[in-house]
Amino acid sequence: MGKLIQNGIRIDGRKFDELRPVKIEVGVLKNADGSAYIEFGNNKIVVAVYGPKEVHPKHMEMPDKATLRCRYHMSPFSVEERKNPAPSRREIEISKVTREALEPALILEDYPRTAIDIYVEVLQSDGGSRCAGITAAAVALADAGIGMRDMVCACAAGKVDDTIVLDISDVEDKEGQADMPVAYLPNLKQISLMQLDGKLTAEEYEECLNFALKGCLQVYEIQKETLQKRYFSEVSKSE
Amino acid sequence: MSRRSSIVIEHLRQEQMEALLKVGKRLDGRGLTDYRELKIETGLIKKAEGSALVSLGNTQVIAGVKIEVDKPFPDMPDKGLLICNAEVLPLASAYAEPGPPDEAAIELARVVDRGIRESEMIDLSKLVIKENEKVYAVFIDVSILNTDGNLFDATSYAVVSALLTTKIPKYEIINNELIKTNEFINMPINTIPISVTMAKINNSIVVDPTNEEEMCMDARVTMTVDEANRVCAVQKGERGTLSIEQIKEIINLAIYKSVDIREKIKGVVYGKEKEQ
User: What 3-state class would DSSP assign to B219?
Assistant: First the structure.
């Protein structure tokens, strides 16, 4: 037995296939066209969507569809040691993969010559912040009324003490053997984000991917619940 | 359907490419899972402790390794440092521009770095001169000289080949003073990680995409495989998506293709050592 798993229980008390507690709120920022706040374990992330709007700089404008832009950023106080507020190489890469994870779900052709900006701000970071950010961003995009083919839900799985587990936490990420963040379009059954740090055999890879997809589907249920509560309860109140 | 090309001739080229892919062929005559010719030359930069020039078809990159002595990171006092960087030089294509690296160049450097780091190719614990105080810092810099697709693999092979041929100048601490000796130590190698990049175009998976194919691809996946056939690092890029079946196909393809390329790199690197 390793130090991260004892008697089938993980260091934070979870089972192998158990998510951390997830809470999503929608419409939390007044100025944004769409917004969401997510608590995913100890992650606290706020996301704003602005657009469709005019494109600046003009050369980024596309004649046949909207220009999607994304910024993932960590607040200096979100981590143990103060993070320099300037965007790091890690943040630039995560901004890129977040945009690419969300883009296949969006009907950008409906908004030619416009820009849609997504801002993901990590206020407090735990393991799996890119997945939590993508999950919240998808809800914020729906809140902004952007046409979508599907939701995007995201969750990581990984390997800790030679065991495949769902939803890697901060400690498990640092001390564990592998971390695989995945984003999923649950109705189209398509994977739009897949990364891996750490060693897995082909068999472990498939098992890990299946774990991550199961996690994504649980996250999807929470996303749906959140949006239903926000929109359908309001409709019934006004009627 | 979204189309990335807007010029008519590119449209025609794309239609031709897609028609060929349906029957398992490619514009340059390769099969779907064939690599272009891989050429590797090592040790050509004498000022660097290790170097390699790699061409993969018309893609050409050069990697150089410089060794310095530095303080270890506070959270890893018993490990040497590894820093990997890549830059697309303005001479590499008509579309490359000078200036700070853009997100594509940052992704390239980070994915290559991840493959080397996560496979534990280098035994960093052997790069310590004095714990907590002095360790070797391995700086790997890659310059892209000519772009024709699949920068990920070309860069990774250049980095791996350069590291395999690196000789570290030996330093010692004598009476609290850091002294450079005349001796050299070999880079401590655990495994040879091989990066395999695949592109999804429509619903076909091709290996080692050219620039033309990259213009038309929906998604790109880079998998780095170690000598025990384990996948050590993965990056999916671009706006397209993949099904679970396609991912299973890609894992097996990456493991299968990595074997030949590893042999090729070993042949060049160790063959050359025998000659000397």
Answer: strand
B97 lies within 8 A of chain A by CB: no
- Nearest by CB to A109, from B2, B235, B252: name it: B2
pLDDT digits over B140-155, tens only? 999 999 999 999 999 9
Q: Do A191 and B237 touch (CB under 8 A)?
A: no
Q: A200 contacts in B (CB within 8 Å)?
A: 230-231
Burial class (CB in 10 A: 0-12, 13-18, 19+), A180: buried
Q: Give the chain B residue nearest A184 (alpha carbons).
A: B241
Tell me, yes or no, whether A2 lies in a domain.
Answer: no
Is B4's Cβ below 8 Å from some Cβ in A? no
In a domain, A7, yes or no: no
Alpha-carbon gap: A184 to the closest alpha carbon of chain B (Å): 9
Nearest to residue B160, comparing CAs of B194, B129, B134? Answer: B194
Q: Consecutive sets of 10 residues in chain B, 276 residues long: mean pLDDT of each? A: 50 89 94 97 96 97 96 93 93 87 94 97 96 95 96 98 96 90 95 98 95 93 98 96 96 97 95 60
* Domain assignment of residue A8, yes or no: no
Best residue in A185, A195, A207 to probe B by mutation, most B CBs within 10 Å? A195
Q: Which residue has the tokens 């706006």?
A: B239
Domain count, chain A: 1
* Extents of the domains making up chain B: 35-275
Q: Is B52 in a helix, a strand, or coil?
A: strand
CA angle A84, A67, B222 (to 5 degrees): 65
Q: Would you say B116 and B160 are in contact if contact means Cβ atoms under 8 Å apart?
A: yes
CATH among 1.10.10.10, 3.40.50.300, 3.30.230.70, 2.30.29.30 for B35-275 = 3.30.230.70
Amino acid code (one letter) for B120? E
Using one digit for the tens of pLDDT, what is the confidence trace for B172-224? 998 889 999 999 999 999 999 999 999 999 999 999 999 999 999 999 999 99
Chain-chain contact of A195 with B237 (C-beta, under 8 angstroms): no
Partner residue opposite B247 with nearest CB, options A64, A200, A209: A209
pLDDT digits (tens, 9 = 90+) for A96-138: 999 999 999 999 999 999 999 999 999 999 999 999 999 999 9
**Among B230, B236, B237, whose Cβ lies nearest the Cβ of A199?**
B230
**Contact indicator for A215, A19 with CB cutoff of 8 Å:** yes
Range of the domain at A145: 15-238
Query: Residue A165 belongs to a domain with what CATH number?
Result: 3.30.230.70
Look at residue A117 and tell me if it is in a domain. Answer: yes
